[in-house]
Design goal:
Mean pLDDT is 86; it is low at 116-126. The longest helix has 28 residues, at 3-30. It is built from 10 helices and no strands. It is mainly alpha-helical. The radius of gyration is 23 Å and the shape is flat. It starts with a helix and ends in a 14-residue tail after the last helix. It is 73% helix and 0% strand.
Length: 222
């Protein structure tokens, strides 16, 4: 590659990063259903520019998703590294995940949802980035468990299946929490992280315990 071609490639990469940053800001403000035209207008350019760099809305979702999910992965990894026990690690990772998603629910939804009306492909736009993200988180969960469980019976089954099952619970509970309207009954982020961690470690067994019998009424005097 000669110098002029190298400079042109560098310019294209820088322009692409600028467009991704602008799109992220626009989606944060306008909502996850913002059209390519809305995003382009917010970025001060035309939608043809976005189509030139990303192909379609699915391509833009993919590009923004790669950036956002990479940042989430680094934040979750940093949180997990400071934990002393597997349970502390789970709480730290769940907390980091909810914090990042709560920072901009619109952007989170944009990069984890498929927009069939705007995309030309029939697959989830961020399937590659999203799959890599959850595979990395699964590995983060499995590593401390592998050393904690030692040679116990059923170790491989737990390590092989449980991290992915845990991710499903965290993601579904977290996304429902994000989408829930504010109310006195809605837990804050810290309480939701603790609740999800308890479900992961203890299940709902504590809630299924029978309530203690009510005290008998005092007997009438004779």
């Amino acid at each position: 590659m000669d110098g002029r071609a190298s400079r042109w490639q560098s310019h294209r990469e820088e322009r692409r990063r600028e467009l991704i940053k602008s799109a992220r800001k626009a989606v944060h403000r306008l909502g996850s259903d913002a059209s390519m035209e809305d995003i382009a207008a917010a970025a001060g350019t035309s939608k043809s520019v976005f189509y030139r760099y990303f192909g379609d809305k699915a391509g833009l979702q993919q590009a923004v998703g790669e950036v956002v999910l990479s940042q989430m992965q680094r934040r979750i990894q940093e949180a997990a590294q400071s934990a002393q026990t597997p349970r502390e690690g789970l709480l730290a990772m769940v907390s980091a995940y909810l914090q990042m998603a709560e920072t901009s629910p619109n952007v989170y939804t944009f990069v984890t949802r498929y927009s069939p009306g705007d995309a030309t492909s029939g697959t989830i736009a961020t399937a590659g980035a999203l799959g890599h993200f959850f595979a990395a988180i699964s590995d983060m969960i499995a590593r401390p468990m592998r050393s904690h469980l030692g040679d116990s019976a059923g170790r491989e089954a737990v390590i092989g299946y449980w991290p992915n099952a845990a991710i499903g619970l965290v993601r579904n509970a977290g996304e429902q929490w994000l989408a829930s309207p504010e109310s006195p009954d809605k837990p804050d982020q810290a309480a939701m992280a603790r609740q999800i961690t308890d479900w992961l470690c203890l299940g709902i067994a504590p809630e299924l315990r029978p309530a203690p019998p009510a005290p008998a009424p005092p007997s009438a005097p004779t």
